[in-house]
Amino acid sequence: MKSPFRNPPSIPPIFLRCFPSPKCLCSTPQPPTSPEKIPSDSHFTRKPFSDSDCPISSSNEPHLTSFSTQDASLTQSHVINTLLSHKDDPPSALKYYRSIKKKRDFVQSIDAFCVLLHILVRSSQTYKHVQYFLNDKFGSDHSGPAPLAFLDHLIDTTKRFDFELNSRAFNYLLNGYVRFNRIDDAVDCFNGMIERNVVPWVPFTNILLTALVRRNLMDKARELYEKMVSIGVAGDCFTVYLMMRAFLKEEKPLEAEKFFREAKAQGIELDAAVYSIAIQAACRKPDLNMAGELLGEMKDRGWVPSEGTFTIVIGAFVKQGNLAEALRLKDEMLSSGKQLNLVVATSLMKGYCKQGDIDQALNLYNKIKEDGLAPNQVTYAVLIEGCCKNQNVKKAYELYEEMKIMDIQPTVFNVNSLIRGFLEASSLNEASNLFDEAIESGIANVFTYNIFLNHFSKDGKVKEACSLWQRMVANGQVPSNVSYNNMILVYCRAGNMDMAHTVFSKMLEQGLKPNAITYSTLIDGHFRKGDAERALDIFDEMIGVHIVPSDYTFNIMINGLSRVGRTSETRDMLKVFVEGGFVATCMTYNSIINGYVKEGAMNSAMGVYKEMHENGISPNVVTYTTLVNGFCKSNNMDLALKMHHEMKRKGLQLDVTAFSALIEGFCKKQDMVRACELFSELQQVGLSPNEFVYNSLIRGFRNVNNMEAANDLHKKMIKEGVPCDIQVYTTLMDGFLRESKLHLASNLYSEMLSKGIVPDMVTYTVLLNGLCSKGHLENAYKVLEEMDRKGITPNVLIYNALIAGNFRYGNLEEALRLHNEMLDRGLVPDDATYDVLVNGKVKAKGEDLSGVSSKEEATWCGGFGRSGDAIV
To answer: Which end of the chain is flanked by fewer CB atoms within 10 Å, N or C?
Structure first.
């Protein structure tokens, strides 16, 4: 039979009148006081009810209605007795009650109403009218007596008039309070029923639970449920659903899961809705294994998860980084007849963006538009953020503009993502324009300013940061802890620790509390200045004000001490930190290893390397690269190669920096065969040689007098688009000058100038030394004059070359003049100068001053004898 509380028929107009105020109702009828008329048990013998049984005294009980002026046929006793005469004929009782309600002089009493309810609930033909009468009596105007008083009337009339206790009337009363939004009265009614041993029915209890959960009255809902359990009523499937929903609204997924498991253990027949909310609880924990198991159970029972359930689970898998499973569930959702909704599509786009697969995210974005789904603000936010994080800020800005065309107002989150993306892409103008636009539109917030402050701070741009700070304050933005931390950082990076501490003091004056980042920044600043003692003092101060150092702080301390040459102290400090709860990472050990490598203490560096292994920390590429560099610098190429081979065994690949160190090491040893082998390996593993790798090889081939190979590498650089810097050109020109190939040296010099590369002191030294050693003193002086015009003071090496050149060709007077000029310029002659002037050591062993053809000489002079872009 359909429950009477679901979709009740409309109430007839005759029942829509409310009862008078409680003041107009008769007090509780009193049974006869004679002991012989009252049986001792709870069941009473039916007997006529008279007016004398309800004493009325207008003086003593002014709130009671007097019947003295009313029609005798409508007195309370007469109405009750008439109703009792129809006790076994509920339809007749209902008909009678309806007839008297139409009379003007009818005033209803509580007891008569209760007798009517007891009679009506006895028949399936009339019990539904109980609900109507209660709705009529207890409407939204809070009419009628208090719940507990009405319950007492119901129970009392049951006993006095020999009715069987039928809880239907009580439960309808409970439901009536809920229906008219009288939740507190409903809770009182529920509690009163339990206290009076009247069992609330589960469906009506569920209705009350639903109302409590909807109003976020979770404590009352739990208390109500516990009372149900205390009387042996465990509830049904819908009860389980409601309580799990209550736990989730309180952000207690563990309790929701526990409730679900207990319900299953009790054998309660659970439906798809309960499983769906259990899956939601599993996703909130998150416990995606459990979510998957529950989905499997649903399918085993023949239930198809709802679109909402699929949406929640797919979003959870994306959040946990399991995009593959999220995509599988999406396919399962579509195959079950569900449509791809915008929430699922946006979640999957976010998953693609997290994996760096922007193309797939954009493909999905285009597909949903083709299918008629309109992207919303969240969709654009996900894509803009994803494009910016994956260095595709151009596409991000296109989406931003498209968003505005679609009349979707960009948020400050969108703007901040774009500004951050432009700055990371070194597009300062675009970032500045967007920043100005955000300020003009009024959406810029303190986070927007902080992004720019952080950008200037990292680069140590004090002037720009200060200007932005003033603009921020002028526009009414209140600087935050992050703002002050950025200003402290900018001064620390600029090396102005006094101003950094001034900002720190200002931060305290504003009532802002420094955090671990604040102190860590100051500590790092002092270490960068080489002031380890002050850095240690700041660390002690941090501990003194009860700010717990972060792992970032500990790493700064270790890296800082290693940087200033106090690496041995870091190992003792590390032990103290670990005892305090710090978990050393690979980065921590790398800092110590790097410190030892800089100090040339390779044995100590290897000791830390072994300690890493003992503590279960696997070295990474940085670890091996640092050790390879150290061994190469100490000319221990065997151990450097050993580290290289160990990396390969562990499946790690050297980066370009490590390859560069190895190649340079073998080049210094003039082992160009091994150097070239490493160069080939570098390319085979998919890395691209940079200018440092080429510099090492070109310098190596020059040192073994193989300029043909060196020049081939130069051509390869140009072909592959690797920038040729001044070091490459200087090395090549030096090598060709040594081989008296003046024409090639001249061509390289012209090529260098055409690329806008300005010669430095090393370049000038190479040129002058090469010209003087080959006897081209006239052109050497032109180079010297060009240096004077550019305000470049020749160094001792240049003067030594000129002095040696003049001495070599017998120009002793000019050689002495150059010596005096050196002294006038404040240059101190070195041993090489005096070896030339005093001992006449001007010709190096094996040096050949002949062999320079007239054609080469003319070419060289032409190359260096021009004005304008050329040196002379």
So the answer is: N
What is the pLDDT averaged over residues 364-392?
93
Cβ pair 491, 462 in contact under 8 A: yes
Q: For residues 713 and 694, what is the distance between their CA atoms, to the nearest angstrom?
A: 7
d(CA 742, CA 760): 20
pLDDT of 764 reads: 85
Give the SS3 label for residue 322.
coil
Tens-digit pLDDT profile for residues 802-813: 888 888 888 888
| CA separation for the pair 422, 394 (Å, rounded) | 9
Is 24 among the domain residues?
no
CATH code (residue 780):
1.25.40.10
7 Cβ neighbours under 8 A, 6+ residues apart: none
Task: Annotate 697-711 with b (16+ C-beta within 10 A) or e (fewer).
Answer: bbbbbbeeeebebbb
pLDDT of residue 842: 52
Residues contacting 400, CB < 8 A, separation 6+ = 380, 384, 410, 414, 418
Write out the E strands in 273-367. none
* Sign, CA torsion 543/546/552/554: positive
CB atoms inside a 10 Å sphere around CB 170: 27
pLDDT tens digits, 650-704: 888 778 888 888 899 899 889 999 999 999 988 998 888 988 899 999 999 999 9
Query: Per the structure block, which two tokens stand in for 854?
Result: 């007239």
Hey, what are 266's tokens?
Answer: 């009790």
Domain count, the chain: 2
Using CA of residue 200, residue 202, residue 206, residue 212, what is the dihedral sign? positive
Position 166 in a domain = yes
CB-based contact 590:627 (threshold 8 Å): no
Q: How far, in Å, CA of 395 to CA of 432, rounded? A: 18
Across the chain, mean pLDDT equals 83
Averaged pLDDT, 487-509 = 94
Instruction: Read off the pLDDT of each residue in 109-123 and give the average, rounded to a whole number.
Output: 89
Give the C-alpha separation, 169 to 134, whole Å.
9
Domain presence at residue 144: yes
Task: Please tell me the least confidently modeled range out of 38-42, 97-101, 779-783.
Answer: 38-42
For the chain, give the longest Cα–Cα distance: 156
Cα–Cα distance list, 716 to 691, 694, 709 (Å): 11, 9, 11
Report the distance separating Cα 263 and Cα 267, nearest Å.
Answer: 7
Token reading at 306: 């709802």
**Residue 112 is assigned to a structural domain of this protein:** yes
Could you tell me the two tokens for 746?
Answer: 């001249």
The residues, any chain, with a CB within 8 Å of residue 665's CB and separated by 6 or more, are: 631, 632, 633, 635, 637, 640
pLDDT at 515 over 90: yes
Residue 778: domain span? 759-843
Question: What pLDDT digit, counting tens, does each position of 322-377 carry?
Answer: 999 999 999 999 999 999 999 999 999 999 999 999 999 999 999 999 999 999 99
125: which 2 tokens? Answer: 């033909």
pLDDT of 28 over the 60 cut: no
> Is this prediction's pTM over 0.90?
no
Question: Binning pLDDT at 50, 70 and 90, where does residue 795 land?
Answer: confident
Q: Cα–Cα distance between 271 and 260 in angstroms, integer?
A: 12
Closest to 311 (Cα-Cα) out of 324, 326, 298, 321: 326
Q: Which two tokens stand for residue 154?
A: 């119901």
Q: At what angle do helices 761-773 and 777-789 cross, to 10 degrees?
A: 160
Half-sphere exposure (Cβ direction) of 28: Cα atoms closer than 13 Å:
14
Percent helix, strand, coil in the chain, to 5, is 65, 0, 35
Query: Taking Cα atoms as reference points, which of 370, 421, 379 lies closest to residue 396?
Result: 421
Phi, psi of 790 (to 5 degrees): -90, 5
